[in-house]
Amino acid sequence: MTTILAIETSCDETAAAIVTDGRTIASNIIASQIDLHAQYGGVFPEVASRAHAETISAVVAQAMTQADMEYTDLDAIAVTQGPGLVGSLLVGINFAKGLALATGLPLLGINHLEGHIYSLWLAPDFADFEFPVLTLIVSGGHSELLVMRAHGVYQRIGGTIDDAAGEAFDKVGRLLGLPFPGGPAIEKAAKSGATETYNFPRAKTDGAYDFSFSGLKTAVLRAVSIQPSGGRRARRVRGAEKGTQLRDDINISDVAASFQEALTDALVSSTERAARDYKVNAVYLSGGVSANALLRAKLRAQLSVPVRYPPLTLCTDNASMIGAAAHFRFRAGHRSPLDFEARASWRLSEDVYAD
User: Fold this and answer.
1) pTM of the full predicted structure?
2) Which CATH number is 15's domain given?
């Protein structure tokens, strides 16, 4: 049995977990900063890193207590090395390095995106499919399509060329004056809206499996805001994007529903083509946006292969997913030197684990 303490501080969640054999969660502690960043309408990096520094010691201690373990019960320590906000990453990395030095335990720096993929392995009913499988990672900072050919072996075939899907949700949510984060708020508002009210664009890209959401965001802005030369009355919406005046005839639920329809269509379209072209045996959906019910339903309905995704509690950033990914890295013999650095950008398909 392999038992790993994992630490995650890539953005605005201070998290620690203990995972055994990459499948079982002994503890999973998350200190969320959502309320802290809501006043900014998004994550404020300096505030995030300071909050991590203030809470990480207590979060790790709580994870150990909840699992009823001592450091002598562990086989390794894992920490998110990137991608993410450098200031936030450094808090977790430096804490993990200190623990590794103090305990003599081996250390593993883990790719945050790989963690999202391995969140599926933590579902109680998850059963592996034969490789290759297609992974769609959609979150606030990432939208990636990769063919997973074996554990730790990835081929990146597509991704966003501008905004990530979760970033688009946040920006449109802010435009409409909805609470942060935008994804859950837009999904909630869309339930009472009509998807056919606006025919927002589904961008075509030069890359067969790429995504683009900046044009969609701009289309929403033009549809809902009063133009300088227009004669329509406008209303201010509390919390809306600074300088934006919404037309007085706008129904926010209709906008949310139409936007969500367009964004999920774009994700599903590229995923469906990739799954067919690469002849994969399943599609693994992960990341914060994987919690979106419409996206899940469309993928299940339109793909000819099984679609799997993590439990809702493991869609957003957490440390247990880092522990699950670390298990497979540890089993393969990978270890990280104590002088490894944080990586703000880190494509999962890069061969950074080669000996």
Assistant:
1) 0.91
2) 3.30.420.40
